[in-house]
Amino acid sequence: MTGTRRMVAVLFLLPALVLLGALVLYPIGYSLFRSFFDSSGDFTAFGNYKTLFTDDSILTAIKNNAVWLVVAPTVATALGLIFAVLTERVRWGTAFKLVIFMPMAISMLAAGIIFRLVYESDPDRGVANAVAVSVHDTFAESSAFPQAHPSTKSPLKSAGDGAFITKEPVEAGTPVVLPLTGVPPNEMPDDAKAAEPARAEAGQVTGTAWQDFTRGKGRGKVNAPDTAELGYAGIKVEAVKDGEVVASTEAGADGTFALPKEADGAQLRFPASNFREPYNGVDWLGPSLITPAVIGSYLWMWAGFAMVLIAAGLASVPRELLEAARVDGANEWQVFRRVTVPLLAPVLAVVLVTLMINVLKIFDLVFVIPPGSSKDDANVLALQLYNSAFGDRDAGVASAIAMLLFLLVIPVMLFNIRRMRREGRR
């Protein structure tokens, strides 16, 4: 078209073609060739490809890649669309976009280290479990005495399901002792005070619930409060007759409590809620949740990427069409679903395809976040390729995995090429 000689064009293209051949075509061809040989270099035909669908760890990697391919791009694109639409309606939309996009400036390795700490099981260190514990404790307060239990000489016995009850009925006017042991001193309630013997009150059942243990051999009396022993502040006490609770109360800071006359002749019970193990959050890095947890960290990084591209597409949408739909009586949801989304379809396709190609080769987050006990459950093809090549020293299986990844990417690339050609003909 420009009169340029074919040889001149070839000379200009030659450096790029050499690099393309050396860095792309040759590795693909050699990987295909090497995939037909085993780890010792012997020809094995399709043996390595058979291993892909018989080895448990590789099958787990394929399954996890399928989950990644379906969930991560879809959710990231949906979040990006929501953020892009909502930020158009607020004054501080630019600042919000900056905050959402900021994780893209962090490397995958750094993000993996951050989320390894976020998902830490200890609520005092892991942000995710700190939030989970706070929300849980808002609706179901944890017990302060999870390890408390009566001694062999205690007037209490097991009532089943973690509760304890007095062996004999109690009488009004006669103080009751309800000794327990097993709570470490540093885990006693902060407001607990030295245990005091309960005073006899006419028409009331009174008593003391306390930690019947004093450090030092031979110190303290069994089943009797000592000045060095602390009361079980806030522990719940129930009076039970014929299997029904007739009265209940909570012990004071010194462990003393009082029940009304209805408790006369009843048995006193510590309900199991007093001894429930404290809620320590979710096992984010356990085998069952490790893949969703890693996908969550990916969304934190890439939702901003999707938002920026979709926001750019949204800025080019003709406002007249949106206003016309509103004039015709469409509500905001109908405008969004029937006008905005169809007009953004090309941009959404670009974002979705880009993220699909990206998740097929996900490696860094899966390498860093899962602990050793969950690495096999979080395995993906890119990580398995690395393990096969450098861990198992099996270049044949690693090459077969590389070819499988190549084949998985091809349909996505062809779809993208066809879409670009259709747009070019418009």
From TrEMBL:
It is found in: Cell membrane. InterPro entries: MetI-like, MetI-like_sf, UgpAE/MalFG_permease. Coiled coil: none annotated. Pfam families: BPD_transp_1. Keywords: Cell membrane, Membrane, Transmembrane, Transmembrane helix, Transport. One of its GO terms (biological process) is transmembrane transport. It is a multi-pass membrane protein. Residues 62-416 form the ABC transmembrane type-1 domain. The keyword Transmembrane helix applies. Residues 195-221 are annotated as: Disordered. It comes from the Bacteria. Signal peptide: none annotated. One of its GO terms (cellular component) is plasma membrane. The chain crosses the membrane at residues 7-28, 66-86, 98-119, 298-318, 339-360, 395-417. Belongs to the binding-protein-dependent transport system permease family. This is Sugar ABC transporter permease. It comes from Streptomyces alboniger.
